């Protein structure tokens, strides 16, 4: 289970956050996605809407996975947002709960580098 969840995260981040294929959330995120980040509304559609706007504002936006730790139905992902010059803009730890092979719940911690 843990390796499958890690692969889901790797693919989701590549497609959604780095290639900006917002519709890929339909394959990886449950419709009733529970969001614990107060800056993003509840549900898959709210996630898509928030990042569609983010990608329009910053077409170079990407998140580089540094490590994924997974156990049972939970996974933590340590990431860096790196600009095209190689500078780290921020560091993030995303924590997910999986349900039926999809991302069902999300928490995060952000560390600004600017």
Question: Can you put this structure into words, describing what you see?
Answer:
The chain has 114 residues and is α+β, with helices and mostly antiparallel strands. Helix content is 31%, strand content 41%. The protein has three helices and five strands. It has helices at residues 2-18, 25-28, 44-57, and strands at residues 29-35, 64-71, 74-82, 88-99, 102-112. A five-stranded mixed beta sheet has the order 1-5-4-3-2. The termini are far apart. The model has no long low-confidence stretch (mean pLDDT 94).
Short synopsis of the structure:
The chain is an alpha+beta fold and 114 residues long.
**How much is the radius of gyration in Å?**
13 Å
How is the main sheet built? 5 strands, mixed
Provide the spatial order of strands within the biggest beta sheet.
1-5-4-3-2
Overall geometry comes to: globular
Strand content range = 35-45%
Structural class, please?
Answer: alpha+beta
Secondary-structure element series: HHEHEEEE
Mean of the pLDDT scores? 94
* N-end to C-end Cα span: 37 Å
Query: Portion of residues in helices?
Result: 25-40%
Report the total helices: 3
Beta-strand segment tally: 5
- Give start-end ranges of low-pLDDT stretches: none
């Amino acid at each position: 289970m843990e390796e499958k969840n890690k692969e889901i995260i790797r693919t989701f981040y590549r497609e959604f956050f780095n290639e900006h294929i917002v519709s890929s959330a339909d394959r990886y995120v449950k419709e009733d996605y529970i969001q614990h980040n107060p800056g993003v509304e509840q549900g898959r559609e709210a996630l898509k809407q928030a990042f569609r706007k983010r990608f329009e504002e910053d077409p170079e936006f990407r998140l580089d996975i540094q490590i994924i730790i997974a156990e049972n139905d939970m996974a933590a992902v340590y990431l860096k947002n790196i600009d095209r010059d190689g500078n780290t803009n921020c560091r993030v730890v995303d924590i997910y709960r999986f349900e039926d092979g999809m991302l069902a719940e999300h928490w995060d911690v952000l560390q600004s580098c600017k």
